[in-house]
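Dear V.,

Thank you for sending over the compound details. I've combined the ligand you provided, S-adenosylmethionine, with the protein sequence from our construct and run the structure prediction for the complex. I'm sharing the raw inputs here so there's no ambiguity about protonation or stereochemistry in the SMILES, which I know was a concern on your side last time.
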Amino acid sequence: MSENKPDSDTNSDTKNNFTRPIRSFVKREGKLTGGQKNALEQLWPTHGVDLGDQRLDLTELFGRTAPVVLEIGFGNGLSLADMAEAHPDMDFFGIEVHRPGVGSCLVQAKKRALNNIRVSGEDAVLVLNQQIADGSLERVQIFFPDPWHKKRHHKRRLIQPVFVEQLVAKLKPGGQIHVATDWQNYAEHVLAVLTTNPDLKNTVADAPLAASFVSAEGELLTDSALWAGGSSSAVGSVVPEGTAPIDNPLLAKGCSERPSYRPDTKYEHRGIRLGHGVWDLIFTKEK
Ligand SMILES: C[S@@+](CC[C@H](N)C(=O)[O-])C[C@H]1O[C@@H](n2cnc3c(N)ncnc32)[C@H](O)[C@@H]1O
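Below is the predicted structure of the protein with S-adenosylmethionine bound, written out as structure tokens.
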């Protein structure tokens, strides 16, 4: 999570005259346990998805037609396995770049004989662009994404307007995007990004309107100090980093109760131990 530290503040390798894409992760190889290695070897042919440039046929991939949930950044995969076990009528496609995490998810799939999980170990941005068909997903869930808490790293946050447009295209009409985070400043950023997407509607009644997050000049305001009026005295306050939650009425209005289908996750526990709050944001694709 917040331990992810890029080598430098920018992802543009200007010294060598080429530009690297901005990534939402730093790849940590990590050592595989024996169990993870075995699970990867044994289950990859049936449960693993290699990167390709063709759209996946989800019916073929899961061997049936059922609603498909995509989880991005599943970490150790325990909560993904819990959901797959609790919802045998649904299929779960998980994407996680950390290989030991993919191995650990497959250990769970093997132990619990889960046939409704498939996993990819690639960057979700590539998998989405290249392999997921438009209008194919029931839900996209991103639980406790890396918050990239320093301001100069905010550009590395996965949830950005263009990325959300891509997610929305992959959802069926009526499909949902569910983001949970323990980092208030990221929750505020996500609320602004999701609310201002014209195809999404917050699932909570009486949610804040998009206008609250857009300046008079049409600029997206992800800084909560500027919400609803463009003045720092308007709503909430700038949230000091890494502290307990600070009352922010607009954020409170925009968040959902945690739905019963979302299990606790490893990073959620860590956040709670550190005294953070937890915010769930759930939006529906309208048409
Ligand atoms: C803070 S962890 C949260 C893990 C898990 N969801 C949980 O709550 O315990 C975020 C995870 O997202 C993964 N991740 C970040 N960007 C990603 C991307 N573009 N594609 C796939 N995985 C990504 C990281 O490797 C990391 O494991």
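A first observation: The pocket of S-adenosylmethionine is lined by residues 1, 24-25, 72-75, 95-98, 101, 123-125, 143-146, 158, 265-268 (CB under 6 Å).

Warm regards,
I. M.
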